[in-house]
Amino acid sequence: MTEQPLKIMYFSPVAGSAAHDDVFAAMARDHKLPGTEVHVTSLPEANGRFGHIEFRSYEAMVTRGIIRAARQAAKEDFDAFAIGCFYDTALHDAREISGDMIVTAPCVASCEIAASLSNRFGIIVGRRKWVHQMAATVREHGHEHRLAGFYHVELGVTEFQADHAETERRLLEAGRKAVEEDFAEALILGCTMEVGFYRDVEARLGVPVIDPSIATLKRAEYAAVLKRQCGWKPSRKWSCEAPPEDEIAHIGGFDEGEIFGNRIVVPAEAPGPARQAA
Fold it and tell me: Which domains does the chain have, with CATH numbers?
């Protein structure tokens, strides 16, 4: 029997557009395993025309959409669900509602990978505004003692793509400070819109540079492989307890109406012909 492909949903908690979602579909195409199918999804505009969620008030507004998306992905038998925001917005909330599906997000995924490559890492962020919240997230995930620091470049999410040369200059300047002054042995780019910038920064600074969108996808994929091969499914005891289905049905609002805006499917590659015995 042919094994079903791994199914990963990469969800951007903003109002999707072809240009925005294509960036992450291309990332998935370049980095997924051949046997993995990736669905790149985003919020419908009915949830608000969010182009970013840099502010806590924006996060609060999209949290409902993330929970609904995670629940729907679990119903569609996805193996893993990736939340595309470095704040790890609604990570615990989505996990609670996701059944046997793995849920991860950029900060936790990137820190886990950085910790496997180095003893000490720095995080380059867009704006100083982000640092307070991201520091709390790093602390919650248990990586504070590995953190060399946060290095802001004073660019908002939507500004990273405006002038690539200027973005790269600022990333290099921040990265050089982290590596040469604060002795970071790896770097994380703390914004999921920076797809592709990591290669040039890595080549110039000589340390691993982790793109958070790639990290999130690969961490989700790895967890899905472990679930299939080892049977390691999410816990649903104690703090991980899921709400009762009859109560969800009584409350309403979890499943009704449009849940996704765009959806781009990056299919698994068809297996090649079986090799004939010599």
Answer: 6-105+214-266 (3.40.50.12500), 107-211 (3.40.50.12500)
